[in-house]
# Entry
Amino acid sequence: MRKTASTTVPVHPLLAERWSPRGFDRAHELGDDALTALLEAARWAPSAQNSQPWRFLVTRRGEAAHDRLFAALTPGNQAWAGSASALVMVAARTAGDDGRPQPWALYDTGQAVAALVTQAQADGLSVHQMGGFDTAVVRTGFGLADTLTPVVVLAVGQAGSPAGLPEPLAAREAAPRTRRPVADLLLPAGPERQLVAA
Ligand SMILES: Cc1cc2nc3c(=O)[nH]c(=O)nc-3n(C[C@H](O)[C@H](O)[C@H](O)COP(=O)(O)O)c2cc1C
# Structure
């Protein structure tokens, strides 16, 4: 299925064609090289002072750790995410060893995920990011250090048929993707500027 972004001027196909499927091909397996390419893309993301605060907990379908990470997802995400080839929990190192906050860690980690997602798109894979998971379950279940903040779980795999999805997910899968127009994203920069509403 294609859900190409509608843009006023062309943007790179890797960006325009990316979307977040819920229908994944259960027969697809994520090989070591394919996985490594995703992690390399993330690894080379820019970060404040080259601090590289992103950490990845990789689990593949069929592994015990995958079952444990799956169990931490919200029921709404459990309804579809089990078909993906891998579930990857992304954490950010939001505090240093001395406990001092790392103010750019979440920003940097999001950037690393964006690079990973774009590499996946280039490799014919899809990624669906999920904030819907129990961070406390992940923290205790995988023994995360206090310096790490669980941020997101990625469902990674090959997009497949939406046929098995329950409603309303099947309808959502077929719906067009939407965005605010660019004009809505611009803050006034001229002399007429006033207090800007969010
Ligand atoms: C940080 C973050 C958290 C998200 N959490 C969920 C989630 O828990 N469940 C879900 O189905 N989609 C989730 N999404 C996917 C968004 O709903 C999706 O990216 C958005 O609707 C735009 O659709 P598109 O990615 O197909 O363009 C999340 C995306 C991001 C970036």
Summary: Residues 19-20, 77, 129-132, 152, 177 surround flavin mononucleotide (CB under 6 Å). The mean pLDDT is 95. The helical segments are 13-16, 32-43, 64-71, 75-81, 105-122, 135-141, 169-174, 182-185. The beta strands are 54-60, 86-93, 126-130, 148-157.
